[in-house]
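hi got a favour to ask and not much time before my train. below you get a single protein, a line of residues and a line of whole numbers that encode the local backbone shape. could you go over both lines and see whether the tokens make sense for that sequence. a few lines back from you is plenty, here it is:
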Amino acid sequence: MSNKKKFIKDVIQQFTVKINQDEANDQLIHSLIFLGEHESYCRSYPEISDIIYHLEKDKFHILKENFALLDEITENKFAALLSNEKIAPENGKGEKIDNLLRFERHIKLSCYQRDYILSQTSDAERSARDAEKVAKKAKGKVGHIYSEFVGILAILQLCLLQ
């Protein structure tokens, strides 16, 4: 794993725990400052999506919570951190903020895609189970028809022998 992917994974992992804005988040703020200064890290969509696709279910849920991607959560903790004067001394403007906003969009897009893929997979599994049930019924009917056919042939053979 490259240093860039390791760092991105570390940042994302920091958002897989509940963030309390009333506490000092110095480590997280320091990571965001570094991230904002490295445009290539913020543009690393393949790495970002790979990390998010492989998160455990509970960590993925907390990540979505911290980015306000759940219906019941309206506070975007990531956006709130961007207002920190250490990150945005230029009043929310500048290349660093643009990079971090790009990173946020990539995180959100990956979350939406993961949810969509999981819903499609769930639908496909449900369809496969339904198809399996229909196939079992059909197999039973074929077996029954075959048995009746053999019985009819036996009766016809008896008739022909007499």
Q: What stands out?
A: Helices lie at 3-14, 26-36, 39-42, 45-53, 57-66, 77-82, 95-161. The chain has a mean pLDDT of 85.
